[in-house]
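Figure 2 data, in text form.
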Amino acid sequence: MRIRPRRRRAARALRRIVSAGVALVLVAPVYGCRRELIPPGAPTAWPAAQARHWQWQWQVDGPLDETVDADVFLLDPVATTAAQTAELRARDRRLVCQVPVGSVRPTDPDASRLPAAVQGAPGRQPGSRWLDVRGWDALEPVLTDRFRLCRGKGFGAVALADADGYAHRSGFPLGFDDQLLFNRRLARLARSLDLSPGLVNDVPQLAALAPDFDFVVNEECVRLDQCAKLLPFADAGKPVFHVEYVGTTDDFCVTTVGYGFASIRKERALDAWREPCPLP
């Protein structure tokens, strides 16, 4: 009579142990496979300690090559799909959208929203026109929606292209200070939408704008003998993403990597092909 209760208690204990073990087996893979994914629109962090060690890709033409071995992708937010950005983000890639802020093309989806009064002389790209950056009231709602498109597709940073109309024959009497004010307004706008702001070129203003922006994208500082002017960003631990279109990596990597830049060789079409400089 004493043995039977003991057997029942032992059986109950065994069942509890087995149930707990099964639960552990079922739960453990869930945590083991869990991936922390930054939500769309979260700003990109650029840790100063890693700024010199990014590999990057710049592609705005042709089918997107998602397999490129790069940490940072600079892409066209209109051509890039949300599925593509989701795939890249799932592999911990940092995504930057390239937004023309000082020009408009007739093929742009929002071209009709910009009044003729703020469209000036032919711009850098075929068919484009420079914008009057003094007309903030007319430009802000359009540029806000361009930035929102980036955020909605999962980009964490925005690179401002054509942000140097003052240095060209724009059709407007733009001054250095007009451009500074416009670019700073855009940096604040980007941050208000949880996007990390960066500049494409605009080399003469980099020293003044380094406190306002998180990174810079530069074309051909070696060929143009301008690399020293990018040092306000590099010295502040902010990434400098640099590209050359002529020569070989043997010609410029020693110089630019020594400056602390992330450098690549590209074709001017900015398709998928790239040749990166080795990391330090």
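Caption note: The first helix runs from residue 3 to 32.
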